[in-house]
Amino acid sequence: MKVGDLVKFQVGGNGRDMVGFVMRIDEQHYGSNTAYKISRVERGKCIRSDMVDFIGETADGIRDRVLVLWSNEVGYEYCESTEIEVISEAS
Known about the structure:
Largest sheet: 5 strands, antiparallel
Order of helices and strands: EEEEEEE
Structural class: mainly beta
Low-confidence stretches: none
Oligomer: single chain
Distance between the termini: 12 Å
Strand content: over 45%
Mean pLDDT: 88
Radius of gyration: 19 Å
Strand order of the largest sheet: 6-5-2-1-7
């Protein structure tokens, strides 16, 4: 994905898509590759920082923030790179 690409965002399950142009990409804006995790916690017990067992990978990882100019009345909007799909690449 790069500036000038045509992208779409699916709105609900009704088959209606919003179409727009990528205006700006802020790389590595959201998320993290790793996180402190706890492998064993009993139900109903509080979680403390000294209970951390390991450092593991996160589910989504690092994602980009994308500024999109939508073709309808929405105007400009920031989206996560995982929410939108490239339809046509700019040359």
